[in-house]
Design a protein that fits this description.
Layout (H helix, E strand, L loop, with lengths): L23 H7 L2 H7 L19 E5 L5 E4 L3 E2 L7 E2 L8 E6 L6 E6 L5 E6 L9 E4 L4 E5 H12 L1
Antiparallel strand pairs: 1-2, 1-9, 3-4, 4-8, 5-6, 6-7, 7-8
Length: 158
């Protein structure tokens, strides 16, 4: 996803790890409607609708709300569930967890560790080495290819 369109979002950063505490009213003014619905209202995008579901490129997945790094592409796997799936977050602080008993189910919700936006759920049926499946709504993810990130890094050093 082209993150250059995030100029209207003062919280968006791939490097700042300061917690973001905006109200839902503030987020509603900043975020696209589909991202707001999932991230702030705990919605779910329809299965098999995210272009990130089948993406095989090497790079990093970020929170589409605040830019927090969430997952590396080498932890992504094909789970068959219809949403991008990963077996491990990029760091222990990139994700936070909460019990979710909605819709008569017992699940574990995963949220962005920086802005507390809803990302999806984690299940205990993933592949080794963690045996976890982070089932994430693609609409709340941004992806940056590794080569693009390297170019930006080198340009910033000059």
């Amino acid at each position: 996803m082209d993150t250059s369109k995030k100029t209207n979002n003062p919280a968006y950063s791939h490097t700042d790890n300061t917690p973001v505490n905006l109200t839902n009213e503030q987020w509603k003014k900043i975020l696209p409607k589909d991202v707001y619905e999932v991230a702030r209202q705990k919605g779910t995008e329809r299965a098999w609708t995210s272009p990130l579901e089948e993406l095989k490129d090497v790079g990093t997945y970020y929170c589409a709300v605040c830019g927090n790094p969430l997952f590396k592409s080498d932890t992504k796997f094909e789970s068959g569930c219809g949403w991008p799936s990963f077996y491990q977050p990029i760091s222990k602080s990139s994700i936070i967890y909460a019990a979710d008993h909605s819709y008569g189910m017992d699940r574990t919700e995963v949220m962005c560790g920086r802005c507390k936006s809803h990302l999806g759920h984690v299940f205990n049926d993933g592949p080794p080495p963690t045996h976890l499946r982070y089932c994430i709504n693609g609409v709340v993810l941004d992806f940056e290819k590794a080569k693009e990130a390297e170019k930006k890094y080198n340009a910033d050093k000059q």
